[in-house]
Structure formats: structure tokens, C-alpha cells
Amino acid sequence: MKYKIKTMTIYTLTLTLTLLGSDNIQNRILSQFIKDNLNQVVRISKCELLLAQSCPENSLLLIDVNNLDEDETLHWQNILASNTGNISTILLNTDDFHDKQKILRWPNCCGVFANNTPLKEFIIGMEKILNGEYWLPRSVMTELLQHYRTDFKPSAQPTTALTSRELDVLALLPTCKSNIEIADILFVSEHTVKSHLYKVFKKIDVKNRLQAMSWVKENLQ
Q1: What b-and-e string marks burial along 128-161, b requiring 16 or more CB atoms within 10 Å of the CB?
Q2: Helices (H), the chain
Q3: Which of 79, 75, 64 is nearest to 31 (CA)?
Q4: Among candidates 151, 145, 158, which has minimal Cα distance to 218?
Q5: Residues 6+ apart with CB under 8 A from 84
Q6: What is the pLDDT of residues 17-68, one digit of tens each?
Q7: What residues are paired with 60 via a beta bridge?
Q8: Which residues of 24-63 are buried (b: 16+ CB within 10 A; e: fewer)?
Q9: Is the Cβ–Cβ distance between 74 and 45 less than 8 Å?
Q10: Strand order, beta sheet including 16-20
């Protein structure tokens, strides 16, 4: 009997999905599972031609990191680094200690699924990604926030008018869908997040979250 989960079938983005790996039974099962539950065709390929050629906009590459050795991992990271404009990556079968540095080495990583992720949660996460959101464990989001605080330097455009906490809220906008999620990570109330966003929007002269996320991309490099 097939395991099928009731899910949404309307997505805000049209994505081309490719599973990086051999055309084996395991990958065929995963490909069919995604098709059955998300109505999305997934092609299986380990051929570098798929990247050497012009990739369609919004290409999504699913990578089973458990099946890549260190040399293969570095090899693919280097290939993807030259295709960041078209390709986003999803990491599959990560371990519980997959830290932010490993994730940051994969260009445009928009999703991380541990090897013990339940199937239902995997489908929910994929739905989020197909709708233009991110799916990252809370521990990873916390580490990425720390990365934004310490590793990233703002561009020439001034950010001195923003407080440290306002920058924290801004940095989490691309990975959190709701104010409640941001509040949970920062250990503050939802009302506090709303207050920060109201002040931030005025300071950086934007009208909504989408414009704020574009500002983050340009100014929190």
C-alpha cells in the first residue's frame, strides 16, 4: 500500500526539482513519494551537464549528503557556487550535529532535513519550500542568527540607526514565516516583534516584509 499524505497542491512558485544521485531504487522511491504527495516531478541525475547547461529559473536541487564523501561534497559545492543565480539546494539525511558552517558551504540552501525526519514533517517542509519559504531546524536558525551577528558585515548603506535587536529581527525574516516564529527564537513576545518591525520598516523605508527581505539581501551581506 502506498503511503500518501494529504497535502496542498497549489504553490506560489514553479520549480524544477532534481535529485542529485544515481538512478537507484532508493532515489526512485523518494522521487515517486514526492510526486504522489506534492504533485511535483523529480528527475534523478548525477550528471554535471545539468549544471553546465543553462538551468531554468527556480531550479531546486535535492542533495543526499549522507551519500557524498568529503571529496564529492567539495566538488559539488564548487560546481554549485557558479550557479547560485538559478539553483537552490535542499540537504537530505543530515545528522543531528550538522552545524551552520556545513550548511553555509552549500550555496542558496533553503531546506535541511535530518535523517530521522518523519515523512509527514518532510512533506510539510517541502510544501513550505515550494511556496517560497525556508525549512531549517530551530537550532540551525539560531546558529545562522549568530552568524549574521558576528560574521557578516553590513554594506556601505548605513545600518547604524538600527538597534542590535532590530537587526536580529531583520536577519530572521527570510527564514521565519510568522512573527511568532521570530519571537520564539529570540525569546520575546509576538507584540515585541511587531513593535520592532514597525520601527524597522520606518527606519529602512520599506512598506512590507517582502521589501524588508530585499533590504536584508542587499545590506546584510
Answers
A1: ebbeebbbbbeebbebbbeebeeeeeeeeeebee
A2: 25-38, 49-52, 70-81, 100-104, 119-130, 138-150, 164-172, 179-186, 190-204, 209-219
A3: 64
A4: 158
A5: 107, 108
A6: 889 888 889 889 999 999 999 999 998 887 665 554 555 556 888 998 888 8
A7: 17, 88
A8: eeebeebbebbeebbebebebbeeeebbeeebeeebbbbb
A9: no
A10: 42-45, 16-20, 59-64, 87-94, 109-114
The cell for 72 is 564529492
58 within 8 A of 40, measured Cβ to Cβ? no
> Going by C-beta distance under 8 Å and a sequence separation of 6 or more, which residues neighbour residue 17?
34, 40, 41, 42, 43, 60, 62
Pull the grid cell for residue 66. Answer: 549522507
pTM of the model: 0.61
- Which residue's entry shows cell 510568522? 178
